[in-house]
Specification:
Chains A, B: This is DNA-binding transcriptional regulator, AcrR family. The structure is a homodimer. By secondary structure, chain A is mainly alpha-helical. Chain A is built from nine helices and no strands. The radius of gyration of chain A is 19 Å and the shape is elongated. The termini of chain A are far apart. Chains A and B meet through helix 1, helix 6, helix 7, helix 8 and helix 9 of A and helix 6, helix 7, helix 8 and helix 9 of B.
């Protein structure tokens, strides 16, 4: 926090964390392994992140901040397609895989869970709310109807495929979720 | 497999596994810790289960086999309420907490993932399909309409609360999911 840091070194450490995770899983993610893979000393990592959980969250937070598109196409269906495709891409990418290894640990580390909820989860909620609010402004939707249900059920289906069942999570599935689940829920009144 | 086993000892080992998990998480679940907690030798455990993954799956499988109710109330809405409340209870109980710690590991252990999908997941799918088929037989539903979407979206919402957001997972939520999500999806035609 207090001193200027070399951002390229930050990136190298984060990349190393992703690589270790992919090879060894969350249980195998140690600061030693990350330091060895990144070619830096352990103290260099601890100067930036207090624990492997903090480091992972930083990796995940970066990725969702960069990659979760906040669409404004002027059309609710298009906005939802862009938003959910972007979520599906984040989940399928390296930071999604990193988040997935965290799922089992979240419930043993309340601080981690809190940061996760305030970071990536809050960002999703904001992006979704923006899309809905604009659709209400354009009179495509009435306020209220089915909004929280849609905000939960849409990502819920994607997350279940990603975390549990391993079924495909591609743009064909996203289109079905938008057309058969979200739009009917949102337009019901 | 080949020799008669003392079922009370099996149960003691499974209970010990749950206790270690609750205290130390998946990364801290070692056969040593389970043996010490159960008060048995490690060989006794390995005679029954080849790995901690196998042991965990056995714990989880037991619980979903015993606890997932397969309702037949004669009414679709009642059946869905019983089924989803039973799922919510399994998730909230000790075997659900055990499953959750497995989520992060599933993707590094394909065999584990396969058994998980063929056990608890397949059992859910069967129970849901039975409920739907009977509703079709009673002419409460037409076949086909929104069934797979409902079968995925309902548990998806519950799983997301359980695995990611930590929001409540009680009978009030289940009632909303049945009335506002499942029944509208199933009855759309």
């Amino acid at each position: 926090m207090g001193r200027p840091r070399d951002p390229s070194r930050d990136d190298a450490i984060k990349l190393a964390a992703l690589r270790v995770l992919a090879e060894a899983g969350y249980c195998g993610l140690t600061m030693d392994a990350v330091a060895a893979t990144a070619g830096v000393g352990k103290a260099t990592i601890y100067r930036r992140w207090a624990s492997k959980g903090d480091l992972l969250l930083s990796v995940i937070d970066d990725a969702t901040a960069d990659q979760l598109t906040r669409p404004d196409t002027g059309c609710l269906r298009e906005d939802l397609l862009v938003l959910l495709n972007s979520l599906a891409e984040v989940l399928a990418g390296p930071s999604g895989r990193a988040s997935r290894t965290l799922l089992g640990a979240l419930h043993h580390e309340p601080t981690l869970a809190e940061v996760f909820r305030q970071g990536p989860l809050a960002r999703w909620q904001e992006a979704f709310t923006e899309v809905i609010d604009r659709a209400v402004d354009r009179r495509e939707l009435r306020p209220g109807t089915g909004v929280w249900m849609a905000a939960e059920a849409g990502p819920g289906m994607l997350l279940q495929r990603w975390a549990v069942t391993g079924q495909p999570l591609d743009s064909a599935v996203v289109t079905v979720v938008v057309d058969e689940l979200l739009l009917p829920l949102l337009r019901r009144c």
